[in-house]
Write a structure and sequence with these properties.
Length: 516
C-alpha cells in the first residue's frame, strides 16, 4: 500500500436513550479541525477520526466513550452521510446501509462500554469509504447494563460462529457417495464458457457455480480442511460444486516466504477437486493492495499454472482478489498482461478480474476503460451482507446493464470485517438477486477460525466427515441456501468401481484452501 497521507479531524457524536424514550436528536457542534454531534444529556460520545489514504479511499476510526456512571450495552450509531454510495466496509464493528443511512453497531467486546471508559481498537475499529465523505446527522441508541443481548449466543455453532435460533434444515451424515464421473458436477456440465453475461455449460445451458472459499492456505485456519474427503463432503451434502483455493500474495503469502507451501496446496487441491468432478478457482489473493505492485510475480504464477492445467477445463483463474485504492483504468493494464499470459497457454478458461475497493466497484469497468477484449473474462463483485445492501446491488445492475459479466468470487453473511453481526435476510436478498441474474457465487470461508464468517464451529475437532454439530451459522446458512436454491446433492446411478480413476485427464500433485 502507498504511504498514507493523514488528515485528522474528529467527529464526536453524543446521544442518549432514556427509559421508554426514543433517540434524542443530535445537535451539531463545530470545533476547530473537527465536526461533532452531541446529545442533550451528553452521556455517550462517539468520535470518528479521519485517515485519508488517497482520493479513492478514506477511513474513519471510531472511539465510543461512556460518560455515565453505569455500563452501557448494544449501542447503535445511525449516520446520515452526504454520499452513502461511497461506503465500502467496516472493521471491528457491524455497519449496514439501511434507508440511505449507515447503521453502525458494536460487536464482540465492543458491544459493552464500562462507566467512565472509552472503547477503541487501534487500526481495527473503523468504517471505510471510497473517498472523503461528510456526516450530516446522527442518532445514537443504547441500553444500560453489562451483558449484551446481541447475536453470538444461539442454537448453531459456538463462539463467534453462534447464532441464536438458527439451524441447518438438513441432516448431515458426514458420509461420502461413490459416484461415476458422469454424475459429478463436471461430469454433467463439462467445460464452461461465458455467453454474454452468463456462465454456460458444455450444452450451452446457463449454469450457476455455487462455491466455498478456503481461508488463506498458508495459515492453519486455511490448511486444516484441504483434504479430498472434506471437499467430497461439500459436494455430496452441502450443495457445493466449486472450491476457491486462496493463495495470499502478501501477509506472509506467496511473495513473502510461503511459495512452496502454497504451490503444494494449490496442486493437491486441484487434483482432489478434479478427481471429484468439481470446479476449482485458483485465486491470486491480492488483499487491499494495488495488483501492479506484484505484477511480475502474478505473470510468473499464472504462466506456470496455465501451462500446468492447459488440458483441464474445470479450472477458473482469479487474477486479483480485492484491489483497493486502484481505479479500473489502473487495474485494466495489469489484467491485459496477465490475461495474455494465460491465453498463451490456455485459450478458453474463464478468467475473473477483481475491481477497485475490495471488488465492489464493478460498475466502474464500463465507464473507466472498458472490458477486456476477451469474451471469457468476468469481473468481480464481493459483498458481506452485514455491511453491503441495495446500493451495492445497484452497482451490479449498472454493470450488467452496461454489458459487464459479473462473478461473485467471495461473499459473507456477516459484516465486512468477517467477524461481525450476521444479516441472513440481506444475504438471502443477495442470493435471490444472483439467481435471478445468473450470477455465480462463492462463500467465505471453509474454516473453524473463531469468527462469524467461518463455516465450521471453533469446537469442530474433525478435518472432514462433518455433521450438524460441527457447523457454525455461516455453514448452516450455506447448506440451507445452496441445497434449497438448486445446489445439487448427487445421487449415484451406479457405484464406481473401487480404485477406478474418475478423471479422464492427467493428474498432478496439488492442494487447497484460507480467509475476511
Amino acid at each position: 500500500m502507498k504511504q498514507k497521507v493523514r488528515k485528522v479531524w474528529a467527529c464526536i457524536l453524543v446521544f442518549a436513550l432514556m427509559a421508554g424514550l426514543g433517540p434524542w436528536p443530535a445537535e451539531e457542534v463545530i470545533a476547530e479541525n473537527s465536526k461533532s454531534f452531541s446529545s442533550d444529556n451528553g452521556e455517550v460520545e462517539i468520535t470518528l477520526t479521519e485517515s485519508k489514504v488517497n482520493e479513492y479511499w478514506c477511513e474513519y476510526y471510531l472511539a465510543v466513550t461512556n460518560h455515565s456512571n453505569q455500563s452501557i450495552r448494544d449501542w447503535q450509531l445511525t449516520l446520515s452521510v452526504n454520499d452513502i454510495s461511497k461506503y465500502r466496509k467496516s472493521f471491528g464493528c457491524q455497519a449496514t446501509v439501511k434507508n440511505d443511512k449507515l447503521v453502525v453497531k458494536g460487536q464482540g467486546n465492543g458491544k459493552v462500554v464500562a462507566a467512565g471508559s472509552t472503547y477503541k481498537v487501534n487500526d481495527d475499529f473503523k468504517i471505510c469509504f471510497g473517498g472523503e465523505v461528510s456526516f450530516t446527522g446522527a442518532e445514537i441508541t443504547y441500553e444500560y447494563g453489562s451483558q449484551s443481548t446481541g447475536g453470538n449466543e444461539g442454537s448453531v455453532g459456538s463462539g463467534a460462529t453462534y447464532m441464536e435460533g438458527y439451524q441447518c434444515n438438513y441432516t448431515l451424515t458426514g458420509q461420502t457417495k461413490d459416484l461415476l464421473y458422469e454424475d459429478t458436477p463436471y461430469g454433467k456440465h463439462g467445460a464452461l464458457h461465458v455467453d454474454g453475461l452468463q456462465v454456460k455449460d458444455k450444452y450451452n445451458q446457463p449454469f450457476t457455480l455455487r462455491g466455498a472459499s478456503t481461508h488463506g492456505m498458508h495459515w492453519g485456519d486455511g490448511e486444516t480442511f484441504l483434504n479430498k474427503t472434506a471437499f467430497q463432503n461439500l459436494r455430496d451434502e452441502w450443495g457445493v460444486n466449486m472450491v476457491r483455493l486462496v493463495s495470499y500474495v502478501t501477509q506472509g503469502g506467496y511473495t513473502q516466504g510461503s511459495k512452496d507451501k502454497l504451490d503444494k496446496h494449490i496442486q493437491e487441491g486441484v487434483s482432489n477437486l478434479t478427481d471429484l468432478g468439481m470446479y476449482a478457482i485458483i485465486d491470486w489473493h491480492v488483499h487491499a493492495e494495488n495488483p501492479n505492485d506484484t505484477k511480475s510475480q502474478a505473470i510468473e504464477f499464472f504462466d506456470m499454472y496455465s501451462k500446468m492445467y492447459k488440458d483441464q477445463s474445470n479450472i477458473i483463474y482469479e487474477i486479483c482478489n480485492e484491489p483497493t485504492g486502484t481505479p479500473w483504468n489502473q487495474i485494466r493494464p495489469y489484467a491485459v498482461d496477465v490475461v495474455n499470459t494465460i491465453r498463451a497457454n490456455d485459450p478458453d478458461a474463464i478468467i475473473v478480474v477483481g475491481t477497485n475497493n475490495w471488488s465492489q466497484d464493478v460498475d466502474e469497468v464500463a465507464t473507466n476503460g472498458g472490458k477486456l477484449d476477451d469474451p471469457n473474462v468476468m469481473y468481480t463483485i464481493h459483498f458481506y451482507s452485514g455491511s453491503h445492501g441495495e446500493s451495492f446491488r445497484n452497482k451490479v445492475r449498472t454493470a450488467l446493464n452496461a454489458g459487464t459479466p459479473v462473478f461473485c468470487t467471495e461473499f459473507g453473511v456477516c459484516d465486512a470485517s468477517g467477524n461481525g453481526g450476521f444479516d441472513l435476510e440481506e444475504a438471502d436478498r443477495w442470493i435471490d438477486f444472483f439467481e435471478e441474474n445468473g450470477i455465480s457465487y462463492c462463500c467465505w470461508s471453509l474454516s473453524k477460525k473463531n469468527e462469524s464468517a467461518s463455516m465450521l464451529s471453533p469446537e469442530c475437532n474433525k478435518v472432514n466427515g462433518f455433521t450438524n454439530a460441527d457447523l457454525g451459522a455461516t455453514g448452516a446458512w450455506l447448506i440451507n441456501t445452496y441445497r434449497s436454491r438448486g445446489g445439487e446433492t448427487p445421487t449415484p446411478s451406479v457405484s464406481a468401481a473401487p480404485g477406478a480413476s474418475a478423471v479422464p485427464m492427467p493428474m498432478y500433485l496439488w492442494a487447497v484452501c484460507w480467509l475476511s
